[in-house]
Design brief:
Elements: E1 7-10, E2 20-25, E3 29-35, E4 41-45, H1 55-68, E5 72-79, H2 84-92, E6 103-111, H3 112-116, E7 119-120, H4 124-139, E8 159-161, E9 165-167, H5 170-182, E10 187-191, E11 197-198, E12 201-209, H6 213-219
Helix pairs in contact: 1-4, 5-6
């Protein structure tokens, strides 16, 4: 069954030959940017619910799309106030009071046409390199006011790129996870650098969450 985004499975221990990409797991709402049936780009949850109050984020993503020169599908994690609770409150009712909130932590991108076809065969390491270039190009642009913003975007970071590291062993994964947990984070995501993007649950993306930290700390 085809969904909107690629989903994760729980990590069991093995890694692809040669290692994998490891990212911090942001504790928020999975969020993807693509057009609705009216053709207007919006930010959506993985279940297809619109995330409101995100015009500041959409503005920055539109700049990235112009830099790419083609329509884009962009995938990440939306977070408000650094916590899942604050994010949930904003998405359910906080936005109704008006204004904008939150940051989109980006980790994937592809041409929109490929996403519509069910995913992309482009390997993850190439997608991440492209995404990094797009984020950097827009960050380097001269700052300009977004229409209707009255300058409130100046100095803000509506979109950030999730940093990653290379892990070559299970011990590397557990060390990265322990650093995240020690800092109060949610966990890590381990991704096969050579894998395509498929709009379904995939073994090529795996997670270790805070709720399982005791088990993995014992293993370390």
């Amino acid at each position: 069954m085809t969904g909107l985004v690629q989903l994760l499975t729980d990590w069991k221990g093995p890694l692809p030959p040669g290692g994998a990409i490891c990212e911090p797991k942001i504790d928020g709402f999975r969020a993807a940017r693509f057009p609705g049936i009216d053709g207007k780009n919006r930010l959506w949850t993985r279940n297809g619910f619109e995330i409101h109050g995100a015009a500041h984020i959409l503005h920055q993503l539109a700049r990235m799309e112009r830099e790419a020169g083609e329509p884009l599908f962009l995938d990440g994690e939306f977070q408000v106030g650094g916590t899942l609770a604050a994010t949930k409150h904003w998405c359910e009712s906080g936005w109704k009071l008006g204004g904008e909130a939150g940051t989109l932590h980006l980790f994937d991108a592809m041409p929109l046409s490929q996403w519509r076809a069910g995913g992309t065969p482009i390997p993850l390491y190439q997608r991440k390199a492209w995404l990094k270039e797009l984020v950097a190009a827009c960050a380097g642009e001269e700052w300009e006011w977004r229409e209707g913003s009255c300058g409130r975007d100046e100095g803000a970071t509506p979109v950030v790129l999730i940093e990653d590291e290379w892990v070559g062993s299970a011990q590397d994964v557990l060390a990265a996870a322990c650093r995240i947990w020690a800092a109060g984070g949610e966990g890590v995501v381990i991704k096969d650098a050579d894998a395509p993007y498929e709009r379904k649950r995939s073994q090529t993306w795996q997670k270790i969450k805070r709720e399982n930290q005791h088990k993995w700390r014992m293993a370390a």
